[in-house]
Amino acid sequence: MTDQLPAIIVLMPLLGALLSVLLGMFDRKLCLPVALVALAITASSAVAMLANVLASPGQSLSYRFGGWDPLVGIEYRIDALSGLVVLAITAVGFLNAIYSKTRVRDESPRREHYFYALYLLLVAGLCGMVLTNDAFNLYVLLEICSLTSYALIAIGNRRAALASFNYVIIGTIGASFYLLGVGYLYIKTGALNMDGIHAALRANDIADSPTIKVGFILIMLGVWIKMALFPLHGWLSNAYSYAPTTTGTLMAPLMTKVMVYIMIRMMLSVFGTEFVFHEEFWSNGVVWIATVAIIAGSVLALARSDIKKMLTYLIVAEVGYMVGGAWLGNHSGMIGASYHILSDAAMTFCLFLAAGIIINRTGEARMNAFDGAFKKYPLTMIGFTVGALAMIGLPPSCGFFSKFYLISGGIEAGQWGFVVALLFSSLVNAVLFFRIFERAYFPKDLASGFEFGGDPDAKPDRSLDQVPYSMLVPMLIAAASLLVIGLANQTIVGWLNTALASFSLK
Amino acid sequence: MIWQFDIIILLFLVVTALISLRLKDLLGASIVFGIYSFLICLLWAEMGAVDVAFTEAAVGAGVSTVIMIATVYNTKRRSKD
Amino acid sequence: MKLLGLVAVIITGSLLLYASGDFPAWGDANSPANSNQQVSVRYIQDSYAKTKTPNEVTAVLADYRGFDTMFETVVIFVAGIAIIAILSFLGEPNKPRGGDIEEHPETPDLIIVQTCKLVIPIIQLFALYVVAHGHYSPGGGFQGGVMFGASLILWALACGLPAALKRLSEPRALVLSAIGIIIYAGWGFLCMLLGGNFLEYAFTDPLLPEGVEKAHSHGMLIVEIGVAFTVTAIMFVIYANLSSRGRLKGGL
Amino acid sequence: MMLDHAMLANLIEDTVVPKINFWIYIILMMTGLYAMISKNNLIKKLIGMSIFQTAIILFYVSIGVKSGSGIPILGAETQREFHEVEHHNHEHDEHPEEFPDVYAYPTINPDDYANPLPHVLMLTAIVVGVSTLGLALAISQKIYHEYGSIEEDEILAQIKTRSDNDD
To answer: Does residue B62 contact residue C150 with C-beta atoms inside 8 Å?
Structure first.
């Protein structure tokens, strides 16, 4: 049964979604347990699959759907990087499902079973997108992820509907550009399997024909739109900040990171490094776009007063890190980019969870929600602080190590603009988060913060932060995972090395 | 695969697309969009893609025109541009 | 906004025109895509030998790339669920949806109702024929499912939405659509239980009388039936919710 | 020297015909893209989106077209040939001494049938297009319910006035 794991990972959430719809009609309280069981099975099979992949000889497994030969049928290929990303997706999905116990009940009453069905199908689509080795199957799964995320956002409050409509329009342009790019590859190579396209590109050396070049540009444009790279990021901040809390905490850490993974997968295993980094001018140009994205993302985050909007602009900056790292063209840049996918997913997840708790408890979306927050919600503030320090890049956390690899890659490639942008954005993150710490730990009017001589009969509430455990525990696990990923970075980078060794990076 | 037939349908396609986008009355625009879908279904059939033509006629022309008219019925009929 | 649109059009337009010069001529048989020996020529030459279905498009759709088609059915399922989730309880959260109070209860027109009574059974019969005959003639799960759904929509147009909802209420339609996907994924899972990979119909050979190739053909038929269930139910649910803005009353 | 019809016809045939499909798809795609971005009415944007997606389907299907080929469905006589060969091989398996040789399946000439792969991909793309259209129409109905208008400039004006008095 263990070699059937890739199919189980994609089927379990699908089955969970169907059960959630069927059982939800009788009793809505059944949906969360169904979702949790489905996600638990998916997470455990993701761990087992990762162990399988690492134990397998070539560090890469292949699964043929329908038993057909890969060129004719659909094939899944799993290597260390995709195994890790699937593990990150299922872990974030599982923890977020626990987090959503109270939030979904309050924010979308009477629609929980639809919410969980869409939630599980989004997780299934993301896992499938990461594993697939077939270009058109990736488009179908991309559409499933897009449709479920449009719907999950549109369930939100008043302004979520317009934000979701804009996301539909821009997301369809992105997905259609990707489809057109695959069409341009198909018209020249006649194959849909990624390895088949790669072999056909190298075999009859059509790599420098205009169709393949334009196909590459179209695929990159489509993927950049879906990952909200700077000039094309217009839809991100409204979509994630007006969406329901649990939609934001699920999509913020995953959607953009999976699209970065797909960009790396397309660059390396379909087009090949000699095609992508053939002309120095174009890859330097993309690194410059990433540099502008980092600077713009950080500056825009600085200007925001709404907490969630600020975090979304940080995502735009982080996407700049990964795109820049991947396009440096050298090994440590690519390692930095793929390691940053995992660390940024964990960091964003922890920050969004903590911000969600504080916004929910204080009911205030702006910065003054943090006034005296440490006194009222000590554990949540600790989690937020760990996430913030990781975002700034302090050593024990994973943020430091990914920045370390990215900067060393940048220096090797001589991209000084990129290195300066990385340091500048760390500085800006520091300013951002210390502004919040100042409000949280040292509130201006000390009295309100520490309540000296507060009303005597206000019995000190010993329960942890008055926040339900279902919200607190996932956040603390996410904060702990930041340190774990950071400390275990040697082993993770070792796996990534073997995964990326086969691609001839400088 | 008669190319004269093919060119005529293609030109009609572009014309109906432009009309559908310029019409101010949304109900009219939806109906012209239905014509656009049926013309494309004719094009697929002419190009030998019979399954695609069948699906386009049933799904593309049939259902999408109906749900678009349903939406126009529930929202505004006049559009400013 | 108009300027942004113009700029985007000019950039992508010039990009595409630059590439279109290099395309193989339209309709030539030995263009790279049409003459690829391992892929499209192989579909044409041994799809009948392996799956016993003359309609190669159905063979490729349901068997070679059956996993794609399963997720296509999931896309329709997602559209239906999403439309209900967005539109239901719009504005009046406490009032129950549906119910029998008719806002403008004009009686359905006699001529329309009679012609519908004549036409709809024929449409549904033809729809079932299209689903069942998908192996030998153009058609299959999607086309047949949409036609069956369209006949329900026709009934809703003729006699008002509540009348159609009495025949197929929304909960029942959702159960029908979920059953469709369960049939599809379940048959694929059955192939896994019998030792093959997911959706490997050859392994369901012991269950079905005829040879391994026929097992492919039967597997495809069952999968198409699952698709037809889902598409029928979801098309009607989409129409019901969009036309009555989620309140399942009134309608067009 | 007046170009008579035959000369004109084959002049068009070898210059325009091989390329017109791909030009028209670019024109349609650009109208769809322009409409999606710059139209003010939400429903017009969705019509532009549908035109954008059907243009891509036009590109895909015109890849798989082979001039002079039939539809990708095997005719009845090829099926009969296959049955005869199979029947014979089946007989051969039972008692090999009577039917010594094993017949091979008749080879099908690929140029007689259109390329089935783009047709399969486009079945998916059409269905995805309709699902996206249905979802976007539902969202526009919800926007109409919240803001009372489906014109983007009126909605943005309302958001601005509402957010001014929210602070």
So the answer is: yes
A143 touches C at CB < 8 Å: yes
ipTM score of complex: 0.93
Q: Do residues D110 and D120 both lie within one domain?
A: no
Q: How far is CA C116 from CA A96, B62, C111, C119, C123, in A?
A: 50, 17, 8, 5, 10
Do the chains D and C touch each other, judged by at least 3 C-beta pairs below 8 angstroms? yes
Yes or no: say if B43 and B13 are a contact pair by the CB < 8 Å rule.
yes
Whether residues A118 and C72 touch (CB distance < 8 A) is answered with no
Task: From D67, D58, D36, select the one nearest D125 (Cα to Cα).
Answer: D58
Asked whether residue C52 is domain-assigned, the answer is: no
Considering only residues A210 and C125, tell me which one the structure prediction assigns the higher pLDDT.
Answer: C125
Q: Are residues D56 and D89 in the same domain?
A: no
Cα–Cα distance measured from residue D140 to residue D144, given in angstroms and rounded to the nearest whole number: 6
**D125 Cβ neighbours under 8 A, 6+ residues apart:** A179, D53, D56, D57, D60
Tell whether D137 lies on the interface with C, counting CB pairs under 8 A.
yes
Mean predicted confidence (pLDDT) in D41-56: 94
Beta strands in chain D (DSSP E): none
**pLDDT (average), residues A49-60:** 85
Q: Is C98 left (phi over 0), alpha (psi -120 to 50) or beta?
A: left
Assess if residue C161 is contained within a domain.
yes
CA distance D91 to A423: 78
Read off the pLDDT of each residue in D141-157 and give the average, rounded to a whole number. 89
CA C248 to chain B, closest CA, distance in angstroms equals 13
Cα–Cα separations (whole angstroms), residue A264 to A272, A333, D165 = 10, 12, 46
Using DSSP's 3-state secondary structure scheme, residue A77 falls into strand
* Domain count within chain D: 2
